[in-house]
Amino acid sequence: MAAQAWPGVALIPGMLCPGCGAALSVYSDSWRCNACGLTSDTLHKIAEELRGQRGAAASPESDQGDFALLKGKQYVNFDIARRYLGIGRRAVEKAVAKGSLTAIGCGQGRRITVDSLRLYLPPSKNAN
Ligand SMILES: [Zn+2]
């Protein structure tokens, strides 16, 4: 099968994945990261989810602000970050895309730095 560019597909130099920094496949009205699978459509949904969650209060049993989740760690996975922040995974991805949180690695190996989590949401529980 010949490697032929699809109509409307162009790899624009300098256009990098907001999630992992890999070069993006850019389409006429969207883009996709081949490294981590993030798409402009996914990002759009994240934004909507984030808007929806901003008004919702954290549930009483949430781990939000619980520093015990981060204690002694430099990096945590997305699940821990999500629990600490009390937001959905996609909202975490969105915060990373915006640069509000710092992530390292790509795909399944991605981690959020504890420093960026503490800046984003200062611990309210177990901070000592
Ligand atoms: Zn990516």
Number of domains: 1
Radius of gyration: 17 Å
- Please trace the helix and strand order, writing H or E for each element: EEHEHHEEH
* Gross geometry: globular
Return the structural class.
Answer: alpha+beta
The beta-strand count equals 5
Q: Could you walk me through the main structural features you see in this protein, from its secondary elements to its overall organization?
A:
The model is unreliable at about 1-5 (pLDDT under 50). Helix 1 (about 40-55) crosses helix 3 (about 90-100). The chain has one domain (about 25-120). It is globular. The protein has four helices and five strands. It has helices at about 40-55, 80-85, 90-100, 115-120; strands spanning about 25, 30-35, 75, 105, 110-115. About 20% of the residues are buried. The chain has about 130 residues and is an alpha+beta fold. The strands form two sheets. A three-stranded antiparallel β-sheet has the order 3-5-4. A two-stranded antiparallel sheet has the order 1-2. The chain is about 30% helix and about 10% strand. Zinc ion (ZN) binds near residues 17, 20 and 33.
Topology:
Layout: E1 24-26, E2 31-33, H1 40-54, E3 75-76, H2 78-85, H3 89-98, E4 103-104, E5 111-113, H4 114-120
Antiparallel strand pairs: 1-2, 3-5, 4-5
The structure holds zinc ion.
